[in-house]
Write a structure and sequence with these properties.
Number of strands: 0
Oligomer: single chain
Structural class: mainly alpha
Distance between the termini: 40 Å
Shape: globular
Helix content: 55-70%
């Protein structure tokens, strides 16, 4: 059996593998000639604009990144907010986490220029972009490590390590750790996993220590992806139920401070986004999404079934490992019923929000990308299920099943990365089954 150190080394090796895969593909030709792409551009532009230009006017940044897409550049330039600035509906959270890597790249660029090396220190080039994306992969690796530490609290070391590696490599996280790290999902996994681990530790400590940290992490999650911040509901319910169960020994008012600490910390950490909205949209509470799209959700007609089972990015269809993971919560319940119920609730909240979103298929996505914040839930479920399976069957069979799931996901990554038709049209059931094998011929 692996030691705890061995498990951490396994996660570090996986992260190093993702980093290597990203670095060796940098020289490959790209349609737009940039490392940062898709939604990642809108997240990235905060960095040079704020840190180098001292404003949130993204005109220069959009002109640079959309040079080869004149229609997109014109549309962005024409889409102005109430303050007269180019619109940006994406959050500032990723830029805050990327800032140390961006500033490190800028210092390196300045140092190289003093040595006579002809490198631009404008915040746009490959040096800056690669440094930021390396940051995403590092954060994602830390998220996987936090998942491992959370799983260790409920399962054996061997099962925890296996479940962590399987969830990342057979799920959609690996794509956003290697192919598109400029998206926010690696950061979402990092913050969500840190939140889940701190919550598990806080609920075991007397007086619910760590409430400030929980709230701060929830605020960070909301900065990265607003829907992720909904996880704050879980420890609030947990703290309320724990207090209620001890009501004979406590006054009701004693239950309030931990909850208030969490909420206050979350709001304080979220303040940078409120300021960004004010500067961009003219209102502290006006999200860029509402400014651009208006009505975003279909709360009374969510696509609950399609989000899970459709060929159009259905969570279980693209990545069946997640179905097994959620089944594993049944065995988590045998150890901690309330934790299992709240973890399931966390998944259900995300499921409903994604299903009600106006673009429930989640755009040009590698599977159910909006569920990546649920990675720690998937890992603890998978770890307990693996422990249960190992007690009844052989480890070799479990490992073989894991290898098959990882191999099929690798083929899917190759298909999705190389078959550009998928970006314009939804994949078929054949694409997701036999197509994975025929694609190699």
């Amino acid at each position: 059996m692996r030691t705890p150190r061995g498990g951490s080394l396994a996660v570090a090796a996986m992260t190093a593998g993702c980093l290597f895969a990203f670095l060796v593909t940098i020289p490959l030709p790209r349609v737009d000639g940039q490392l940062v792409g898709s939604d990642g551009v809108k997240y990235y532009v905060y960095l040079p604009s704020i840190l180098l230009d001292g404003d949130v006017d993204f005109s220069d940044e959009y002109a640079y990144f959309f040079t080869g897409q004149p229609q997109a550049a014109e549309r962005l330039e024409a889409t102005r907010t109430a303050t007269g600035l180019p619109a940006n509906r994406f959050g500032i959270g990723p830029a805050l986490l990327w800032a140390p890597f961006f500033l490190g790249a800028h210092l390196l660029a300045l140092a190289l220029r003093t040595l006579g090396v002809p490198v631009a220190a404008d915040g746009y080039g490959y040096l800056y972009q690669a440094s930021v994306l390396v940051g995403s992969i590092v954060y994602g690796g830390l998220g996987a490590w936090f998942c491992l530490k959370a799983a260790r609290r409920l399962a054996t070391e061997r099962a925890a390590v296996f479940a962590t590696l399987l969830t990342v490599l057979a799920g959609n996280a690996v794509y956003y750790l290697t192919v598109e790290p400029s998206m926010s999902h690696a950061l979402s996994m990092f913050a969500g996993s840190a939140f889940f681990l701190v919550w598990m530790r806080a609920r075991e400590a007397p007086e619910w220590k760590g409430c400030w940290w929980l709230g701060a992490l929830a605020g960070l999650m909301a900065l990265i992806r607003p829907q992720d911040g909904l996880f704050l509901v879980l420890p609030i319910i947990d703290a309320a139920v724990a207090c209620w169960s001890r009501r004979r020994h406590r006054a009701p008012a004693e239950c309030v401070p931990p909850i208030l600490k969490m909420v206050l910390a979350a709001v304080l950490v979220f303040v940078p986004q409120l300021i960004a909205w004010k500067l961009l949209n003219g209102d502290f509470l006006l999200s860029g999404y509402r400014e651009e799209f208006g009505d975003l959700f279909r709360w009374t007609s969510p696509h609950l079934g399609a989000v899970l089972f459709s060929a159009r990015r259905g969570l279980y269809v693209w990545h069946p490992v997640f179905l097994f993971s959620l089944v594993g919560l049944l065995w988590v319940a045998r150890r901690d019923r309330r934790l299992a119920a709240l973890a399931a609730l966390g998944f259900v909240i995300q499921w409903y929000v994604v299903s009600a979103w106006h673009d429930w298929a989640q755009g040009d996505a590698f599977g159910g990308r909006m569920f990546i914040v649920c990675t720690p839930i998937f890992v603890i479920g998978a770890a307990t299920l693996v422990d249960r399976a190992a007690a009844r069957w052989s480890w070799r069979g479990i490992q073989a099943a894991g290898v098959v799931l990882v191999a099929l996901n690798f083929l899917l990554v190759v298909q999705y990365r190389l078959d550009l038709l998928w970006a314009a049209s939804p994949p078929t059931w054949r694409d997701l089954t036999l197509g994975r094998l025929w694609f190699l011929s």
